[in-house]
Amino acid sequence: MEFAKPLPSYLVQRYQGWKATTYSENRSWYRRLATEGQRPRAMVISCCDSRVHVTSIFGADQGEFFIHRNIANLVPPYEPDGDHHGTSATIEYAVTVLKVAHLMVLGHSQCGGVQGCIDMCKGLAPELERKESFVGRWMDILRPKYDLVSDISDDAEQARAFERQSVLASLANLMTFPFIAEAVEEGSLSLHGLWTDIGEGGLEYYDTKAKAFAPV
Amino acid sequence: MEFAKPLPSYLVQRYQGWKATTYSENRSWYRRLATEGQRPRAMVISCCDSRVHVTSIFGADQGEFFIHRNIANLVPPYEPDGDHHGTSATIEYAVTVLKVAHLMVLGHSQCGGVQGCIDMCKGLAPELERKESFVGRWMDILRPKYDLVSDISDDAEQARAFERQSVLASLANLMTFPFIAEAVEEGSLSLHGLWTDIGEGGLEYYDTKAKAFAPV
Amino acid sequence: MEFAKPLPSYLVQRYQGWKATTYSENRSWYRRLATEGQRPRAMVISCCDSRVHVTSIFGADQGEFFIHRNIANLVPPYEPDGDHHGTSATIEYAVTVLKVAHLMVLGHSQCGGVQGCIDMCKGLAPELERKESFVGRWMDILRPKYDLVSDISDDAEQARAFERQSVLASLANLMTFPFIAEAVEEGSLSLHGLWTDIGEGGLEYYDTKAKAFAPV
Amino acid sequence: MEFAKPLPSYLVQRYQGWKATTYSENRSWYRRLATEGQRPRAMVISCCDSRVHVTSIFGADQGEFFIHRNIANLVPPYEPDGDHHGTSATIEYAVTVLKVAHLMVLGHSQCGGVQGCIDMCKGLAPELERKESFVGRWMDILRPKYDLVSDISDDAEQARAFERQSVLASLANLMTFPFIAEAVEEGSLSLHGLWTDIGEGGLEYYDTKAKAFAPV
Lengths: 216, 216, 216, 216
Fold this sequence. Notes:
Four copies of one chain form a homotetramer. Chain A has helices at 9-25, 27-36, 54-57, 86-97, 112-121, 126-129, 134-139, 155-174, 178-185; strands at 42-47, 65-70, 102-108, 190-197, 202-207, 212-215. A six-stranded mixed beta sheet of chain A has the order 2-1-3-4-5-6, with helices on one face. The first copy, chain A, is globular. In chain A, strand 4 and strand 5 form a beta hairpin. Helix content of chain A is 42%, strand content 17%. The first copy, chain A, is α/β, with parallel strands linked by helices and 216 residues long.
């Protein structure tokens, strides 16, 4: 473990600033969160992308959202084979232990993971096809949906359409988990498909009547 | 997809408030992030826990941190077997595509995942032992480290010690990825082990000289 | 060049301390900044005054702010006459090459340049009126705004008011540069007027609705 | 002035953190600096580049360095023609009013301004040749020195050599200011030529005996 490094000093300074202001002003709330445990109202599955901050967009505070972030906000299908499934573990914990009332999948514009999947599907990314490519194998989850957008000739439009498909694929896969389907059926959990435009600050949701994404 | 629901109105209202204020005042930066792409300085692996907000603690804004969040901030060992490995995909993307300079693993107090693992190891959580338990199988990553803390008789102290082991286990597993070991060796990536106390707002880092966590 | 001297040894020692600590712990980030180039989010125009450290106030690290510092944080009007215009060159580079999203003009209390301008306007500084006085000729940029504060009888109050006028004069002059006006209009650049109180650690911004400076 | 915007909230938060920690812990010093005025020991002329932080490299605190930053750390020759000369004003103020004991010119690697000058000299940057290009006209200060490096065939090596020439050209121009030459002659001011390597954290000074830059 001799390779571990101390924290860069600019982060230490910022942390101390946070401790002296935000933490200090909310100490009682932080302590209550610590002693009583978390009780989040919603789970959010969003991308790791540094430009997507769900807590900022929704003005969410400590304790509100249980957040899983992975490449391209994907959920794999239910596969209880005894292996490590990090995303499935987060969902199981949120729904069966924390009993969140809402589960939101948040896609976003300019998603590098989704673009990588498009490149693979077009034969432009042989390095992602390799068995050893974790990104490529992860994006395989979305790959079967490429047919739905392969006809779109404009590249930017195609990427946006596929980003929305990544949200829908995740929602569909969520329903393959027995505990999710059950909670949705009995009305204790609702699922939401969302997509945000980074540059324009837009937010869309999947509208089941229109069978399309629409601005919130 | 008829199960998907519109966004709860309190979140719609908050979003619209964000759009009219934060987004509006920073439109130029968001647009630049959208057109030029992200270029985060650091990746953070933290827990999904709703009480842990790394961007808040470090005063980080859109574009600074590439963030992966899973149960108990765990990294599995390198296993390029062609299956979906969500966590490994995030690391691969951050290090080989985005070329982040820092990779921080952030553990935290009162971690439900770590507690679950302790319960399993003590034989108190048969439901987590089931093959179908995604949380149980995910926590298997940490399980071999239980010996290091099994002697600690105080429950709270044991949990804190194991939370820190989850950080160290992740750091050790990170080094099993060839592209990480290489980047660390050539000095283009540094790894950091961190642990935060939710109730007290504390922050500790792993100090290689002391071979222990110490306040930053 | 025989007049150049080696660095004082106390600075050599401090540099070597920095190299062994801050640099060493952030080598990966410095190397990435060197190879990939800078991509600052904001430009700051502040005074040369040794008491004003914008990076400290804002917890900014290497790579965040493109900083121009001159006497009294002044921007001259657009004057493309083929002569050397150091300040205009910095603005042009920041906005047209680096495409910063924010441009902040930061004034401050106890500004010696602003005080010199007041002295000139009151006829108390004949040495600054000389054609050869670079400081005097530089403060001519601010001089026409003296009418706005000439009625204030309290000296300290007048100086503070004029320091704020130096910020507003710079903002107004910035808008005379075609590439700034254009970027502001299309929403790719936002301008900010700031003033800091050195002794009290205060920070104010120009509030367009109140048409006055207000604490942030 | 209706175009001015409030400060982005992440900067407001960081500022408040600074106020509650760094400022709060040093309030007496800040107040003394405010009431007694600045008394910096040295002036530094460095580049606006966001990657160059002279206060960090030298562990300098509030009040130590009077800092002018412009494109490529250039000083124009003495030209008392009654026009605005921002850089000359900073030098005059530092040497004749503040009476600094040291004046350091700090060049750096990967300098965009210096590279632009090389491009102009090679006929590769017609846009910088335009009368309206402030960057181009500013770099004209350095242009006459291109002959000294035009023979170097390796691009990176040539850029480094020209960056060092920018420091020497500024030192030579400083000596054309009567008040500088006088202060240097009477021993009340010493000039220093420095160059820093961003990626490697290196620092070199101009060694008059060796007539070359050497590591400090």
